[in-house]
């Protein structure tokens, strides 16, 4: 069984994780006409906004209640009410997603009661806008927990409860935070190719896909509609990607009775086969020829690529579900996980990581544990460690700010797994060093005088 090693350092040397509020805001950004609202100080919001803008290279709608010293002492209910009313009047969002921060959580504010009071007192003023609360203190958890809490809050606060007439062709999909824009687009296209209608919550492929609107829009544009969230109970089946999305799926099942199937990873041949088999069974349709062709391409990529992966040592630092996704991908290809560093120990998926141990820590731990690795796998903040160690870096996760197009990188199902194989194999080939004669035969120059042995002509 894998050993989970707790964090022992008093401070992060090179931080790996991003906060819960950021994860919740990212989920709210996947809803059409939404406005995430950080309930806390301006600094908390500014940091998250900078990370979002650098990662997505887009204008990001994100607001704050701007708590100051007085509001922190006396309470932030007035600031929260003022912010909600201002946003309603100025931007007219369909959804305001309130994300609490450490400031109000440490103070112990009852934000749920405050929002309930605002909804009751200001019902006429905020009519037509859903207000949803996600309790996401910065000092606990990371992106995964924040994303899952926001999705859970939207289901609890918006989805119509009770058993409803099911639409046999309608599928609800709850993707994990680690799926890229390209992943979600590909997921939708795959489901639609079987004649099914997917409703994806959240759908960042509609709001953060890099398109430029013809006019200035103050909220998100594209993504899951509030009406689609309200009618999730009419889906025939719910498909969940990532262990951290189990809780939202359980809430949806409890509220509406919609059953769910959870996929811990869609990367790799087994996961992709299981997914395709499920949607084929739900639709009653045979697997399309195009899907079969992509599967054959993946089989060929597995044959071509495994020569480059065999025996390689990989060091990964990521959120729990992404760590599992990548670690299983590499071990399936014949590599070994030399170091596994994770942001938090709150996920059960860590027990399934194919490594001797998993260290809860930061990128300083990755640098120490992965010194002998052949490849480092983490986000852009790992670039300094890669440079110091002289080891190539594969960019994954959040944030990625020193590469373009990270959100359009496909990582799931047949095509995404194929592309990952090619990406990693090409990294290995680009960093391959030809062996010297001395390395191949260390006894080759044993009888040669020292002065000749050190001569450039002899060495080459």
UniProtKB/TrEMBL annotation:
| Name of the protein described by the UniProt record | Nitrogenase iron-molybdenum cofactor biosynthesis protein NifN
Q: Which protein family is it in?
A: Belongs to the NifD/NifK/NifE/NifN family.
Listed Basic and acidic residues bias regions: 441-453
Q: Which PROSITE patterns match?
A: NITROGENASE_1_1
Biological processes annotated in GO: protein-containing complex assembly
Chain residue ranges for the region called Disordered: 438-460
Residues forming the Nitrogenase/oxidoreductase component domain are 19-428
Q: Which Pfam families match?
A: Oxidored_nitro
What pathway is this protein said to act in by its record? Cofactor biosynthesis; Fe-Mo cofactor biosynthesis
Keywords on this record? Nitrogen fixation
Q: Which PANTHER family match?
A: LIGHT-INDEPENDENT PROTOCHLOROPHYLLIDE REDUCTASE SUBUNIT B
Q: Which InterPro entries match?
A: ChlB/BchB/BchZ, Nase/OxRdtase_comp1, Nase_comp1_CS, Nase_Mo-Fe_CF
Entry annotated with the keyword Cytoplasm: no
Q: What does this protein do?
A: This protein may play a role in the biosynthesis of the prosthetic group of nitrogenase (FeMo cofactor).
Q: Which GO terms describe its molecular function?
A: nitrogenase activity
């Amino acid at each position: 069984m894998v050993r989970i090693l707790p964090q022992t350092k008093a401070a992060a040397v090179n931080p790996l994780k991003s906060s819960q509020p950021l994860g919740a805001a990212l989920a709210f950004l996947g809803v059409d006409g939404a406005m995430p609202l950080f309930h806390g100080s301006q600094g908390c919001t500014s940091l998250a906004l900078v990370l979002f803008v650098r990662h997505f290279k887009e204008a990001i709608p994100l607001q704050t209640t701007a708590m100051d010293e007085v509001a922190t002492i006396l309470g932030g209910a007035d600031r929260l009410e003022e912010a909600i009313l201002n946003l309603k009047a100025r931007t007219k969002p369909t959804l305001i997603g309130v994300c609490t921060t450490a400031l109000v959580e440490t103070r112990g504010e009852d934000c749920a009661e405050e929002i309930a009071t605002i909804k009751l007192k200001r019902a006429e003023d905020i009519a037509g806008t859903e207000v949803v609360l996600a309790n996401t203190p910065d000092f606990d958890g990371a992106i995964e927990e924040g994303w899952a809490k926001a999705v859970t809050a939207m289901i609890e606060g918006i989805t119509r409860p009770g058993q409803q007439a099911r639409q046999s062709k309608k599928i609800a999909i709850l993707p994990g935070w680690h799926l890229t824009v390209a992943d979600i687009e590909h997921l939708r296209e795959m489901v639609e190719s079987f004649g099914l209608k997917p409703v994806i919550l959240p759908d960042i492929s509609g709001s953060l896909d890099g398109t430029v609107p013809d006019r200035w829009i103050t909220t998100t544009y594209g993504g899951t509609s509030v009406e689609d969230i309200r009618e999730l109970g009419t889906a025939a089946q719910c498909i969940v990607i990532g262990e951290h999305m189990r809780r939202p799926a359980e809430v949806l099942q409890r509220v509406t009775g919609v059953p769910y199937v959870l996929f811990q990873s869609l990367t790799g041949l087994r996961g992709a086969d299981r997914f395709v088999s499920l949607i084929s069974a739900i639709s009653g349709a045979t697997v399309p020829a195009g899907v079969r062709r992509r599967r054959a391409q993946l089989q060929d990529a597995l044959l071509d690529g495994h020569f480059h992966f065999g025996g390689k040592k990989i060091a990964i630092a990521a959120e729990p579900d992404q760590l599992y996704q990548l670690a299983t991908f590499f071990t399936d290809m014949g590599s070994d996980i030399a170091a596994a560093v994770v942001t938090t120990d709150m996920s059960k998926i860590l027990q399934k990581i194919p490594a001797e141990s998993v260290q809860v820590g930061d990128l300083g731990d990755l640098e120490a544990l992965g010194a002998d690795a052949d490849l480092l796998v983490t986000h852009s903040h790992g670039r300094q460690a890669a440079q110091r160690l002289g080891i190539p870096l594969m960019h994954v996760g959040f944030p990625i700010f020193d590469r373009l197009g990270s959100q359009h990188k496909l990582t799931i199902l047949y095509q995404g797994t194929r592309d990952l194989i090619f990406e990693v194999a090409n990294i290995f080939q680009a960093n391959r060093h030809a062996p010297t004669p001395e390395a191949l035969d260390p006894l080759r120059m044993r009888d040669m005088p020292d002065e000749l042995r050190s001569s450039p002509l002899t060495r080459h």
